[in-house]
């Protein structure tokens, strides 16, 4: 049912007044990454009991997750499944 709605209502980005602008997607990505890193820092602090160690883990996680996400997206760009 959802697939039928998507395929029947083909509209490009400029015609679709309800889709997000790219800047909103970027802001959401950054805010989600911040939330994820805060979660990692808190969990690390609870487990280790050391705030410096927790922030170190959070900082490393922040960078590695962004790098991994970039390559994950690039790989998905090469997969034809679900594209026209």
Topology record:
Blueprint: H1 2-8, H2 22-48, H3 51-77
Domain DUF2061: 26-77
Pfam family, one: DUF2061
Protein name: Putative membrane protein
The assigned structural class equals mainly alpha
Distance between the termini: 19 Å
> Which band does the percent of strand residues land in?
under 5%
Order of helices and strands: HHH
Question: What is the total number of structural domains?
Answer: 1
The number of strands is 0
- Percentage of residues assigned to helices: over 70%
**Anisotropy-based shape:** elongated
Number of helical regions: 3
Largest sheet: none
| Unreliable spans | none
- Based on CA atoms alone, the radius of gyration comes out at 19 Å
Could you report the average pLDDT, rounded to the nearest whole number? 83
Condensed summary:
The protein contains three helices and no strands. With 84 residues, the protein is mainly alpha-helical. It has one domain (23-84).
What does this structure look like?
With 84 residues, the protein is mainly α. The protein has one domain (23-84). Helix content is 73%, strand content 0%. It contains 3 helices and no strands. The chain has helices at residues 2-8, 22-48, 51-77. Helix 2 runs antiparallel to helix 3 (51-77).
What labels would you give this structure?
3 helices, 73% helix, 84 residues, mainly alpha, Putative membrane protein, elongated, DUF2061_membrane
């Amino acid at each position: 049912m959802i697939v039928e709605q998507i395929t029947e209502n083909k509209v490009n980005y400029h015609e679709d007044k309800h889709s997000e602008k790219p800047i909103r997607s970027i802001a959401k990505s950054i805010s989600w990454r911040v939330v994820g890193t805060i979660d990692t820092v808190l969990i690390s602090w609870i487990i280790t009991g050391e705030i410096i160690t927790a922030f170190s883990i959070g900082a490393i996680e922040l960078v590695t997750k962004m790098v991994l996400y970039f390559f994950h997206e690039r790989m998905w760009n090469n997969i034809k499944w679900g594209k026209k």
